[in-house]
Amino acid sequence: MKLLGVEYNASGEVAYDVIGDNALLRNNDDFYIPAFASGVSCVPQLVVKVGRIGKCVAERFAGRYYEEVGIGIRFYADNLVESLSTKGLPTTMAYAFDGAAAISELKKYDSPVAGIEYWLQLNGREVFRGKVNELSLTPEKLIAGMSEYYMLKIGDLIYCGNTFRQRGLKIGDHLQMSLNGKCLLDFYIK
C-alpha cells in the first residue's frame, strides 16, 4: 500500500507525490509534533481507497477505481518546508514523517461523491468547510492524472488535497473533522 497525495502551489498548479505508509496516523491517535518542527500546519482532505489495479486510467472510468471514502488531515513541518525549499531540495520529508497523515475509518460509498461535504474544526470552531464538487481536482481527475505516473494498486490511499491550510497549530489544539455531518476524526495535538 502507498499513500498518493497532491500538492498545490499558489498558482493552483499541482504535483503528485508518494509517501510511505509510515505516515499514517490511525484510530484517532493524538498527533505528536516532532522535535524538528517549530511550525506546524495541516490540510483537511478527502481520502479514497483504490479498489482495483490501474495504469493510465481515463477520467470517465476513474469512478470505478474506488468504492471506499473517508477523510484525512495531512500535517506539514512548515519550518522544514521553508528550509528545504531555500536550499533547492525536495520538501518530502517535511510532510512524509511518521504520523503526518491522519486518516478516518473508510466507508463504502455507492452514491456519487460529488455531493460529499466535509469540514474541519479547531478547538471547537469551524475553520474549513468544503464539498467534493468544489475541489479543483475531483477524485476522478486525480486518479486519471496519478495513474499516468504511478501504477494504482488495491489498497492504495489517495489524499485528494486542498488549497486551504490551517497554520500555527500548537500543543493542546483539538482537531475534529466531519464527513456529511458525522465526526470521524477527533484528536489532540501533543
Summarize the structure in words.
- The protein is mainly β.
- The chain has a single domain, classed as Fumarylacetoacetate hydrolase, domain 2 (Alpha-Beta Complex).
- It has 2 helices and 13 strands.
- It has helices spanning 78-86, 139-149; strands at residues 3-8, 14-19, 24-25, 40-50, 66-77, 101-103, 107-108, 117-122, 125-131, 157-159, 166-169, 174-179, 182-188.
- β8 (117-122) and β9 form a beta hairpin.
- The longest helix is centred in the C-terminal third of the chain and has 11 residues, at 139-149.
Summarize the structure.
With 190 residues, the protein is mainly beta. It has helices at residues 78-86, 139-149; strands spanning 3-8, 14-19, 24-25, 40-50, 66-77, 101-103, 107-108, 117-122, 125-131, 157-159, 166-169, 174-179, 182-188.
Radius of gyration: 16 Å
Helical/strand content category: mainly beta
Mean pLDDT: 94
Largest sheet at a glance? 9 strands, mixed
Please identify which CATH superfamily we are dealing with: Fumarylacetoacetase-like, C-terminal domain
Number of helices: 2
CATH architecture: Alpha-Beta Complex
- First-to-last CA distance: 28 Å
User: What percent of residues adopt helix (DSSP H or I)?
Assistant: 10-25%
Label this structure with key terms.
2 helices; mainly beta; nine-stranded mixed sheet; about 190 residues; 13 strands
Write the SSE topology.
Elements: E1 3-8, E2 14-19, E3 24-25, E4 40-50, E5 66-77, H1 78-86, E6 101-103, E7 107-108, E8 117-122, E9 125-131, H2 139-149, E10 157-159, E11 166-169, E12 174-179, E13 182-188
Parallel strand pairs: 1-10, 3-6
Antiparallel strand pairs: 1-2, 4-5, 4-10, 4-11, 5-6, 5-7, 8-9, 8-12, 12-13
